[in-house]
């Protein structure tokens, strides 16, 4: 008898809603049915994925409705990978961006509101971060380092 095939832990495959950062994160979560590339300021190149959606904070309701519709059509759960674009930094590293975290969290929060809430720990933290700061989102995005750099 052969051993069962298991995915790498970074794939978060045991969860319906997953979260990661950047192109490497998108690659790690590539087996998801829907990949949501979150780039609030629209500055990063979008990765290729057959179930790709691009989103910002204001798209959370649209993404939630799309996933719910896909689940209804399938008659089963759909896996969702929410990937915050972040910002490239020195030597190929990725820099954390407040605006992408909040936008990803808004989508994860919306999915939870719809009952799509089997979240990886990473997704749960992003969703909770948005939930706790939802009333300050507009200010936090406009005051973030990345937004200020874009205006400079």
Automatic annotation (TrEMBL):
Superkingdom per UniProt: Bacteria
InterPro entries registered for this protein in UniProt: ComB-like_sf
GO MF terms held by the record: 2-phosphosulfolactate phosphatase activity; magnesium ion binding
Protein name: 2-phosphosulfolactate phosphatase
Organism listed in the record: Schumannella luteola
């Amino acid at each position: 008898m052969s051993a069962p095939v298991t995915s790498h832990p970074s794939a978060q495959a045991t969860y319906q809603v997953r979260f990661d950062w950047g192109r490497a994160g998108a690659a790690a979560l590539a087996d998801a049915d829907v990949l949501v590339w979150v780039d609030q300021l629209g500055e990063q190149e979008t990765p290729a994925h057959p179930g790709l959606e691009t989103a910002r904070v204001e798209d959370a309701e649209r993404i939630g409705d799309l996933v719910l519709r896909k689940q209804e059509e399938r008659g089963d759960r759909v896996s969702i990978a929410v990937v915050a674009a972040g910002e490239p930094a020195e030597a190929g590293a990725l820099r954390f961006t407040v605006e992408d975290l909040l936008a990803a969290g808004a989508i994860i929060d919306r999915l939870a509101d719809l009952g799509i809430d089997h979240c990886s720990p990473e997704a749960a933290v992003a969703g909770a971060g948005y939930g706790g700061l939802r009333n300050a989102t507009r200010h936090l995005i406009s005051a973030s380092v990345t937004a200020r750099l874009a205006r400079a």
